[in-house]
């Protein structure tokens, strides 16, 4: 029997998305594919709430999406500020440095996030070209205060790149209204498609900065100059070739983006909030502590929860034996001390109850007795009933 897949990506995807993947492979010059790709690009712009942005859909993972942003916006010697909330912020810094940026970090202890005042204090020193923020850092389940961070970046005329890989289409984000220059994600998290696509929406200001570069982009595959004509052509209903697009995955993406828009973005954000609240009620009923240091910083797309006293990482395997696949820790300083549960994309009340029940049974089977059997499921039920 198949376990419920509740890791923070890849996530379970809808049957219609899978069906799109099982259709005969289309060529990239096929009229049906051209129409589908064009529609998917328009839909990506809608998902990011970025009517002015240029969408890019490129074969690769979320890490490529990060590199597609950095490689095009950074020239050697540029200064970048990394708002650091964990493992994926560190990865962004690593990519920035590889492309020649001088990186300054504004960090918080694991589970925290720098606030706008701390970031502004650094930006006010001047000289920064770019600020990066990890919308939800999947290693800590910290939801960064991205709207207020973008406000200070814009006040200081600094470009912004927001890593939405564990957030886009799950956490509220208004790219144009909030003034983000690049919002990037991958197909396999809240966007609800199997792994394999890097997705970006890029502001006119960022494209302008890229056009004025002096140094060439240090990667052919990551150069917007190769991809922009392709994206523009497909959106205009014409084919164009740089490197073969993953036609089947793009058809699946179009289906999923269509479903997301049919649900409605606000309704979808609210469903993620509601499921996350139910999980938090369950963790609290079990006497467990979250990594995020406040409710406001707790992501709605996943939970990161410390093991209680006397319980170790073997819990992950015991939860699997109870029917739900969850993940261990990822933050280098703490990874043996907590577990993670993804709750994004299709997540339903049923998934919440099955997962909470599996964690509760696994804890009890391991001898953990801080709560009576059924307490956590009841707490989740109560949260879902309000
Ligand atoms: C998963 C993730 C990435 C990396 O994506 P890959 O598809 O694994 O390359 C980057 N940033 C965040 C916030 C993520 O959650």
Automatic annotation (TrEMBL):
Residues annotated as binding substrate: 340
All copies of domain Aminotransferase class V, residue ranges: 29-333
Annotated Pfam families: Aminotran_5 (PF00266)
Gene3D superfamilies, per database record: Aspartate Aminotransferase, domain 1, Type I PLP-dependent aspartate aminotransferase-like (Major domain)
Required cofactor(s): pyridoxal 5'-phosphate
Family of the protein in this entry: Belongs to the class-V pyridoxal-phosphate-dependent aminotransferase family.
Name of the protein in question: Alanine--glyoxylate aminotransferase family protein
